[in-house]
Give the backbone structure.
Amino acid sequence: MTRFVLATANPAKAREIKEVIQTEYEDIEVIPLDPSWPEVIEDGATLEANALLKADAATARALIPALADDTGLEVSALQGAPGVRSARYASDEATDAQNIAFLLDQMRAVSAENRAARFTTVAIAKWPDGKILLATGSVYGVIAEQARGDAGFGYDPVFVPTEGDGRTFAEMSPVEKHKLSHRGRAFRSLAHKLVDLERSV
Ligand code: IMP
C-alpha cells in the first residue's frame, strides 16, 4: 500500500481526487492535508507551476509522496481568461459564487454559439526525493447563460460539457462528472502511470 498526502485544502476537490484515483489504483492510501499547515501562495505562471508548488509544500511537510492538481478554465470569447487566474477571477479572495457571477457578467453579450470553453487539470505525484509523475486532462464545453445545479464546486454550475447531455457538471452525479471531467481524465492517467511505476520496481 503506497501512502500519499493530498495537497489540497478544498474538501470537494480532495473527494474527487480520492474517488478517481482509488477506482483505478487500489493499492493507494490517500491522507488529507494537515489544516494547520500554512496556505501555499499559488503565484506560478502556469497550471503545472502551481501544481508543483502545492506538491512541493505538502511532500516537504509530510515527508511522504504528495498528490496535487491545479485547474484552469479557458473561455474562447475571453481570449483564454480566466485561465491560470481561475480561482481569483472576480478578486483575490473571491468565492465560487462571486467568480461565477463575474464570468456570467463578462459574457452577457456573448451569443450561444460563441460560449466555448475548456477545463484543464495538471495532476502531479511528487516524492520527497524529487521524483515526479505528471498527467494532464481536458474537457471541452460551453458556458451556460445561467448557473444550474447544486453538486460539485467552482464553476461546475455554468459548465456544460460537449460530450454530455446538456446538463452542467453541477447537475451530474460525481461518477457522471468524473467520466467526462478534466480532473477525472488527469487522475485516471496519473493512476495508470503510478500502477506502471509500481510494476516496474
Ligand atoms: P485550483 O486548481 O484549486 O486552483 O482551482 C482553480 C479554480 O478553478 C477555482 O476557482 C476552482 O473552484 C475552479 N475549479 C477547479 N476544479 C474545478 C472543477 O472541477 N469544476 C469547476 N471549477 C473548478
In short: The beta strands are 2-6, 28-31, 66-75, 82-83, 116-126, 132-143, 159-161. The chain is about 35% helix and 25% strand. The chain has a mean pLDDT of 96.
